[in-house]
Amino acid sequence: MKRLSVFFIAGIFCLSAAFITAEENTPLSFSSCLDFALDPEAERRPGATHFSHLVSPYEMIEARFRFNIEYKLLTPLGGNALLKDSNVVLKAVEELTPINCRQVVQASFTPVPFLVFSAGASIGTGWHIDHQFGGLRKVNVNTGKYEDLTTFKNFYYDFYGEALFQFDTGEVFPGDWNHVQLLASYNAAYKKMTGLKKGEAGKWSGTDNFASGWLYDFMAVLAYKMPCRFYRAGVMSEFWGHYNADDYGEAGRKENFNGSYMTVSIAPFTQAKVTEKDNITLLAEFQARRAFKEDHFDYSKETQLHYTGREWYLMRIAVQWEHRF
Fewer CB within 10 A of the terminal residue: the chain, N end or C end? Predict the structure, then answer.
């Protein structure tokens, strides 16, 4: 399952924001993120769990632009060091890719520096460029092919809650070289695409085999921050899937498509400061997608196949440019 509209790199932006200190004096802030990714082509081999070899250095290019507005409200819960910086952050995001647009609103509460609780919602729609690239599609069960849904008549929407833990050893052991950083978050979301009936699969932006329902997403980041231009390096892992296999109907059974399969991603990354307001992030993402008993080439036909294990492959090499106004 590929996720173009929700780049794995988005977690890196979360990491950048999580460890920003209260050095900004204005409650209102603006930022933008521009993401590009090169997806190599990896072979799809039937069988049990295995690693897939590269067939070509290029399969597709992904791109996304996000404009963020944040308003921070100080809500001190006490006078001690843990509670004096409690705050609420209200955030609005406009997201645009070549095949979809989406609007996001979110509210986050930070009672203590190492905990953040968030809730939000988003809505978007998509369009198609040609028979291969489409942002809002459903699978025709008779042909196993994607059919484009109508832009601005059909929509994707979600609402979610999230808890995040963050810790920096530099807060306990002061020093420029003492910053080992840990971030872990758990997200529960209901995601829906109009035009899909219960048990049907489709495609939202770059997410193949999309099915409406409740999903979980756990992310963990371990990084080291340094006082130099390449100021952070680390590794990020992500685990996500559907709570209920029945979201895929009969295909959700484990011996079929395995609707409750947990996708795993691992990505080493590094971040560099270009200017005081500009950062660059580079990463390589490895993912474990479903492996099947049958040979196949189309994502749209996977819900008709039989799950046998995991197929590890190099999913993308990505770069993100972040600018704070």
Answer: C
Over range 261-279, report the average pLDDT: 95
**Nearest alpha carbon to residue 137 among 199, 198, 206, 190:** 206
Q: Number of helices and strands (H, E) in the chain?
A: 1, 17
> What number of residues does the chain have?
325
CB atoms within 10 A of CB 143: 10
Mean pLDDT (whole number) for 56-62: 89
Q: Which of 246, 315, 266, 288 is nearest to 48 (CA)?
A: 288
Query: For position 78, what pLDDT does the model report?
Result: 80
CA angle 162, 196, 240 (to 5 degrees): 30
d(CA 201, CA 139): 6
pLDDT of 284? 96
Rounded CA-CA distance 155/166 in Å is 34
Helix (H, G, I), strand (E, B) or coil at 304: helix
CA end-to-end span of the chain: 34
Do the bridges between strand 28-42 and strand 202-204 make them parallel or antiparallel, or are there none, so unpaired?
unpaired
- Strand 50-51 versus strand 307-324 pairing type: parallel
The tokens for 61 are 């290019």
List the one residue out of 13, 199, 201, 213 whose CA is nearest residue 95. 13
Q: Using the CB atoms, write b or e for 103-114: b if 16+ within 10 Å.
A: ebebebebbebb
